[in-house]
Amino acid sequence: MVGLGAKKPPSRRGSMADVPQDLIKQIERLEELFLVPAEKLKEITDHFISELERGLREENATIPMNATWCMEFPDGHETGTFLALDMGGTNMRVCEVTLSDQAGEFDIIQSKYRMPEDLKTGTADELWGYVADCLQQFIGYHHEGEKIEALPLGFTFSYPATQEYIDHGILQRWTKGFDIDGVEGKDVVPPFEAALKERGVPIKLTALVNDTTGTMIASAYTDPLMKIGCIFGTGCNAAYMENCGSIPKLAHMNLDPNLPMAINCEYGAFDSEHKVLPRTPYDIIIDKESPRPDQQAFEKMIAGLYLGEIFRLVLLDLNQQADCNIFDGQDISKLKKPYSLDSGFLAAIEEDPFENLSETQELMQTKLSLKTTKPELELIRRLAELIGTRAARLSACGVAAICKKKGWSTCHVGADGSVFNKYPHFKVRGAQALKEILDWPENKGKGKGDPVEMFPAEDGSGVGAALIAALTLKRVMVGQNAGIRDPEAMKAVAKFAKKA
């Protein structure tokens, strides 16, 4: 099986002996469609590098390569008390992070708040009012009776946004089910701060943070070899530290060319022109029927939101082919429902430990009301492996492209997201693909880990956001460029954060 390296997940090729010829032919056809050889991975990576560079040169490039105004890694000795706000699609989390003067140590308290569904399509005033109410409730509970001037806040705003300052951000487009009029194309910070002021909440937004950048910074807090932050979950993205001299689109700002600048790649949009990714007919259907066709092409092939849908479309297609007898004579109405299967469904199939695939059989019956034969189960298992393996191997191309562009032969990558953390064999398959792309010798890294290695990330939306707020205020206090719109107004906040 392509892409499974030394620690191969168990192969079931020997279980194909009793599979009829019509299904064998379909499995071979699917392998042709979904397997991605090393040569193709290298071709994708080379194109990826050119697109990363284009995003640094041009506004409105396919990969946006957004400057975040986070301009250094933590040294492990940051101190102070900071709030972190993470506004997700389902929940909102508020954290208070106290950074110790002991390298890499911190204390954290946190509360979760439900994000009401009606807010997602309501008004901007309702949204920011609710967020401000939750922050007010958090401070009231944890700081009752205390005199607070202004707690600095790192706001994890994980929606595509362009930033000319670290404490502001213009929303490019809503995602995660939000569709609130009058917000896209505008700075989200002024109405948010207005809601805080109206309620007398003692908070000063210090940094607007993307979760990928937060992941990188939080991971680097405890691991100095960390250079890249990645998200492999419902969507996909990466962040890394560039130098300003390599960002031509910022040349007009006359920044020190050696000044570091964290870049939020937003590289789920890679190859939306469809030049190099090996799309199948099923990928094309997903793209055409999505709310935004010809956008987020890379994400649609590797992210958790789409893996179950690819699987569903393949099974539906097989059922409708005259020369393939699968689910014959059965009611397939549940299989016809778009996005009814998620990546967890595929993960459960791959984790089935039984030779007769009894857990997969029960899953198909429970979820789709379909009875399956042993040969059909073998095809289903192989299809799940193919889709999961392709996602892991393609995901390595973005990481490899950043490493090759920067000339890094070794580094650590902090990775987060449900697919990275929960999908079986994703890490092993991705590591094997990196080895093939970067041409590591067989014995390279033996006993020491791979030259480029992915690790589960620290809490980017909590600790990462707080750290970025701390780093920003540290730069303000020593008079360095901090990417802040009003440094003078931020100095008092910095002093309070140290005392708190």
Secondary structure topology:
Elements: H1 21-34, H2 38-57, E1 66-67, E2 80-87, E3 91-99, E4 106-114, H3 124-142, E5 151-156, E6 161-162, E7 170-171, H4 189-199, E8 203-209, H5 211-222, E9 226-232, E10 236-243, E11 260-264, H6 281-289, H7 299-302, H8 304-320, H9 343-350, H10 358-368, H11 374-406, E12 411-416, H12 418-422, H13 426-438, E13 452-456, H14 460-477, H15 487-499
Helix pairs in contact: 1-11, 2-11, 2-13, 3-4, 5-14, 8-9, 8-11, 9-11, 11-13, 14-15
General description of the model:
It catalyses: a D-hexose + ATP = a D-hexose 6-phosphate + ADP + H(+); D-fructose + ATP = D-fructose 6-phosphate + ADP + H(+). Pathway: Carbohydrate degradation; glycolysis; D-glyceraldehyde 3-phosphate and glycerone phosphate from D-glucose: step 1/4; Carbohydrate metabolism; hexose metabolism. One of its GO terms (biological process) is intracellular glucose homeostasis. With 500 residues, the chain is an alpha/beta fold. The chain folds into 2 domains: 291 residues, Hexokinase, domain 1; 192 residues, ATPase, nucleotide binding domain (Nucleotidyltransferase, domain 5). It is 41% helix and 15% strand. The protein contains 15 helices and 13 strands. Helix 1 runs parallel beside helix 11, helix 2 crosses helix 13 and helix 14 crosses helix 15. It is globular and about 75 Å long.
